[in-house]
Amino acid sequence: LRLVGSEMCIRDSSDCDIISIMVRANSPEDGTTYDGVISENGNITFELPAKVKLSELYITANLPVAAFAYPSLTGAKDLSTPFKLTIVAGDGTQKEYTLIAKHPNN
């Protein structure tokens, strides 16, 4: 159960939809985060400035209660190629996402 504005949104144990997701560059002095755009087909796209190294990104995701990500989002991830991420709901229901990071004009 979570409160969104004045609406209540109930997430049941079979919910494996990512609520929101973002990445942060490896550089500790640059705490800028970049939101992912989640499409209906399961692709999540991150448009990142050219200065951001795609091979060292930290991912943060807001997931439903009792859901977890596989593989774990701990540590830096290489998104220079598409990265497969599975969200597993409390009841074992699974949904696969493909994370795609790119620089403008690529």
Q: Which labels suit this protein?
A:
10 strands, single chain, 106 residues, 5-stranded mixed beta sheet, 3-stranded antiparallel beta sheet, disordered N terminus, mainly beta, 0% helix
Fraction in helix: under 10%
Extended strand count: 10
Order of helices and strands: EEEEEEEEEE
Assess the beta-strand content as a share of residues.
Answer: 35-45%
Number of helical runs?
0
Strand order of the largest sheet: 5-6-10-9-8
Q: What Rg, in angstroms, do the CA atoms define?
A: 14 Å
Summarize model confidence as the mean pLDDT.
Answer: 86
* N-to-C CA distance: 39 Å
List unreliable stretches of 5+ residues. Answer: 1-11
How would the global form be characterised? globular
Largest sheet: 5 strands, mixed
Alpha-beta content class: mainly beta
Structure explained in plain terms:
- With 106 residues, the chain is mostly beta strands.
- It contains no helices and ten strands.
- The termini are far apart.
Could you give a quick summary of the protein structure above?
By secondary structure, the chain is mostly beta strands. It has strands spanning about 1-5, 5-10, 20-25, 35, 35-40, 45, 55-60, 70, 85-90, 95-100. The chain contains no helices and ten strands.
Secondary-structure blueprint:
Layout: E1 2-4, E2 7-9, E3 20-25, E4 33-35, E5 37-38, E6 43-47, E7 57-62, E8 68-70, E9 83-88, E10 94-102
Parallel strand pairs: 6-10
Antiparallel strand pairs: 1-2, 3-4, 3-7, 5-6, 8-9, 9-10
